[in-house]
Amino acid sequence: MPRSRPASPMGAVIALLLFGGAVATGLSIVMTFFRVYQSPIALGLRSSTGYYVAECALVGLFTAVGVLFTRPRAAVPIAAAVAAYVALGVGERIGSAGYVLLMHRDLPPEWIIKSAADLHFYAWDLVAVGTAGVLVGLRFAIAASGGRGASQSQ
Fold first, then answer.
1. Beta strands of 17-128 (E only): which ranges?
2. What pLDDT does 144 receive?
């Protein structure tokens, strides 16, 4: 029976998780900026719930994708879920504040702060949390089983 690889160093897993979170934050900034941009182009798409759900799913996916190449330990799915939620929240705030800053330069600075500090929670935010947590959790389960499939476990 071939020996399985040892678990990846925790520092490497956390570094990949942080890198994925940074990429996901950038994606969320761009998608949020496009969502709040006031133009008639694709208005129906940008204002739809489906666009926001797709943004949440992509943030969760990009947060978790780096960890999928490692052999994580038990606590990593929880860290991935938290990182995805933080990436989504930070990306939304920077994206909306950036829109106000770039498109409405005549507004007073408190409007920029107000747009960034608009704390809200939508149930759809859990899509990002769930996507990252489930992907990394599945990778952990595969790594914990030694990479055996269902037909090889006997």
1. none
2. 79
Record the pTM: 0.82
Residue among 144, 139, 136, 143 at smallest CA distance from 63: 136
- 118 to each of 23, 36, 58, 90, how far by Cα in Å? 23, 14, 22, 11
Residue type at 83? A
Residues counted in the chain? 154
pLDDT tens-digit map of 75-130: 888 999 999 999 999 998 888 888 878 887 777 777 777 767 777 788 999 999 99
- Interior angle at CA 92, CA 100 and CA 137, nearest 5: 170
Note whether 66 and 139 are within 8 A (CB): no
A 10 A CB-CB count for 114 gives: 14
What are the angstrom distances between the C-alpha of 66 and each of 38, 79, 90, 149?
Answer: 34, 13, 20, 22
Give the chain's largest Cα–Cα span. 69
Residue 121: count other Cβ atoms within 10 Å of its Cβ.
9
Residue 85 has which token pair?
Answer: 């939620």
